Amino acid sequence: MELFGLADCNNFFVSCERVFRPDLNGKPVIVLSNNDGCVISRSNEAKSLGIKMGIPLFQIRKEIEKYDISIFSSNYVLYGDMSRRVMSLLSCYTPKLDQYSIDEAFLDFSDMGDTDQLHKYGQEIVKIVGKGTGIPISLGIAPTRTLAKVASKFAKKYKGYHGCCIIDTDEKRKKALELFEVGDVFGIGRKMKEHLSKYGVRTAADFTRLDGEWVRSVFSITGYRTWRELHGEACISLDELPAKKSICVSRSFANEGITDRRQLEEAVANFASDCARKLREQKSLCQQMTVFAFTSRFRTDQPQDFINHNIRLEISTNDSSEIIKRAIEGLRANYRNGNFAYKKAGVILWDIISDSNVQGNLFDTRDRSKISALQHTIDNINRRDGLGTVRNAIQGNDLRKNIKREHLSRQYTTNFDEIMTIKA
DNA sequence: TCTGGGGTCCTAGGACCC
DNA sequence: TCTGGGGTCCTAGGACCC
Q1: Cβ-based contacts (< 7 Å) between A 55-84 and strand B
Q2: Whose CA is closest to A277, among A367, A383, A369?
């Protein structure tokens, strides 16, 4: 029997912070987005206090004071490293692991014995990951990805499952869907939920009782796929991770934003450089790119500007210097004098192809193999000595200067100088 | 004062060609 | 100069996910 497991880290970013701050167990904790803008991860205690996902920090100042909520700026170096540890442990328990996001992975559990055995096996995995990494996880197992996700939410919600819930019979499936709100189903977002409520659809079970053809005509092929998955028919397969089709690096800037043109160029150069590095990591080239920058839409009292410039690269590339150069050219071509305060900017690489699939160009005057060798050497140095050790001059000296991070935890696991100390 | 970042997929509509 | 329809490709935008 084909079975999917979905392993989901509980309150992942908060859990990462707590591994190194065990004194915060059982207390309300939140992690903030870049620039300490919004809440992006909450402990159960923070959730029960009514702190909503995505709410701006400034709107919950009172609650933070009143309930003594601990705050952390996001520390992606730490989370990335903890994620690698979790994933590497999980991969020991399945022939095929498909990482879906920083804190979630699908595991192939097909033909792994009967339900009882599988249940014990699942609980064992949850226990070992918890012990080995300090991160609590929930495991859902079912015949489709969408149902596995439902199961993982049950595993998280009810202690009795000991971290692992299996939906493997029609009876269990129907019972679970009756108890599951339709808006919580993977693939059904806010709009679809609103639309469905007009037809009296409240639970996932209500949704499955709708006519399939009707669902397809109203919610298109994606909605219909979700409908079939909930019926137990796997439509989304467990495949190798395909190369990304677009790569984007963007940030909003702290406080009032950036008004100085040179500073904006410096930021964009850094985004372009990051993009190019990611592109090389997946062994790809891009043929088109976009550079954008805009002012704050919340500041209606200030002049607004929206730069969105597309660049077609005659010759596909993943070379940082070239991608930086083209991004800056694009930005300059669109820059207007108007004293704009840019709040966010970014670079997107797209039209991506494999680097083994290079189309030569008669008019290419640059020596591509030389450039590639140089780039390779730079990547190696930066991997060894830290990102940004070797960089283009326009990238400036302080890669983080426009980002606000007032509550940053240490890089416990990746920086020797910030390793945990234990007092005797 | 302060409002995240990085993706995927699908559809509709326009441009263009025959 | 007027008439029609079908196909493809591209792009923008929306909806969804974490």
Answers
A1: 56-58
A2: A383
Which domain does A360 fall in, by range? 247-395
Do A90 and A134 have their domain in common? yes
pLDDT above 80 (res A237): no
Question: What pLDDT was estimated at residue A322?
Answer: 94
Task: Tell the burial category of A318 from Cβ atoms under 10 Å away from its Cβ (0-12, 13-18, 19+).
Answer: buried
Task: Categorize the per-residue pLDDT at A357 as very low, low, confident or very high, splitting at 50, 70 and 90.
Answer: low
**B9 C1' to A303 CA distance, Å:** 35
For strand C, is any atom closer than 7 Å to the CB of A101? yes
- How crowded is the C-beta side of A383, counted as CA atoms within 13 Å? 10
The gap between A242 CA and B14 C1' (Å) is: 31
Residue A411 belongs to some domain of the structure: no
Do A72 and A83 sit in the same domain of this protein?
A: no
Considering the domain architecture, whether residues A132 and A273 belong to the same structural domain is answered as no
Q: Supply the pLDDT for residue A368.
A: 79
Residue A282, SS3?
Answer: coil
Q: Are residues A191 and A298 in the same domain?
A: no
Nucleotide nearest to A278 (CA to C1'): B6
| 8 Å CB contact between A249 and A274 | yes
Helix runs in A134-240, H state only: 145-157, 170-178, 190-197, 204-208, 212-230
Whether A403 is covered by a domain: the verdict is no
Give the model's pLDDT for residue A240.
Answer: 55
pLDDT tens figures, A253-292: 988 889 999 999 999 999 999 999 999 988 899 989 999 9
| pLDDT recorded at residue A394 | 86
Distance A243 CA to B8 C1' (A): 12
Distance in Å from B2's C1' to A18's CA comes to 26
Residue A68 lies in a domain: yes
pLDDT category at A30 given cuts 50, 70, 90 is very high
How far is the C-alpha of A328 from the C-alpha of A335, rounded, in Å?
10
Domain of A72: which CATH number? 3.40.1170.60
Residue A265 in any domain: the answer is yes
Instruction: For the full predicted model, state whether its pTM sits above 0.90.
Output: no
Domain count, chain A: 3
A304 and A356 share a domain?
A: yes
